[in-house]
Amino acid sequence: MSSLYFFILDRSELKPQVQCYFTHSFLCPPGAVLGQDGGAMKQMLLPFWLGLGGTLGSGRQPFPWIHVSDLAGIIARSLEPPVLSEATPPTPQVYNGVAPTITTNYEFTKELGRILRRPTIFPVPEFIMSVLLGSERAVILTQGQKVIPTKTLESGYQFKYPDLTSALKQIVGS
To answer: Which helix H or strand E contains 84, and what residues bound it?
Structure first.
């Protein structure tokens, strides 16, 4: 973001010609971003290929995820100018960067193992996660958060990878 964005506190002080450049903002908090060239998959694939993959903690926690292509599509869609009336001041739009299907860590683990044709029998206890990743990051992974992309769906965005199976097959080449 530019420093000008933080400097302008009241857009009514701007000339009308300049206001059009400052009428749209959005937030797109992503889930675990899945793709072939890095992100969360880069860290997960080796243990799974070795047959050491397993659930994180209990596995019952929600595991919000998104394919990198869909995240890019949501960002591109959210950059489109909103339809506003003069009486409606612009407000930041929030497009949750997660797939429309709710998945638990257990479901994710089992599906990745199935697609890779590898066992998923070694759960990672919460205390190990805390030691390896720190307590704050471990809590995020072991407790999860249920996120629904309501605004994203309302915007008309069509997911390329709405389900976990299609996303993982594209990533691992099955």
So the answer is: none
pLDDT given for residue 24 in this prediction: 53
**pTM of the full predicted structure?**
0.77
Amino acid at 125: P
Q: CA-CA distance, 138 to 146, in Å (whole number)?
A: 16
- Domains of the chain by start residue, with CATH: 11-169 (3.40.50.720)
Q: Are 26 and 94 in contact (CB under 8 A)?
A: yes
Q: Which residue type, as a one-letter code, is found at position 10?
A: D
**Long-range CB pairs of 44-52, under 8 A, 24+ apart, other chains included:** 44/112, 45/172, 48/112, 48/113, 48/116, 48/118, 48/120, 49/116, 49/118, 50/118, 51/118, 51/119, 52/122
Among all chains, which residue has been given the structure tokens 């080796």?
A: 46
| Structure token digits, residue 144 | 């999860």
Per-residue pLDDT, 1: 35
User: Alpha-carbon distance 167 to 63, whole Å?
Assistant: 14
| pLDDT higher at 166 or 14 | 166
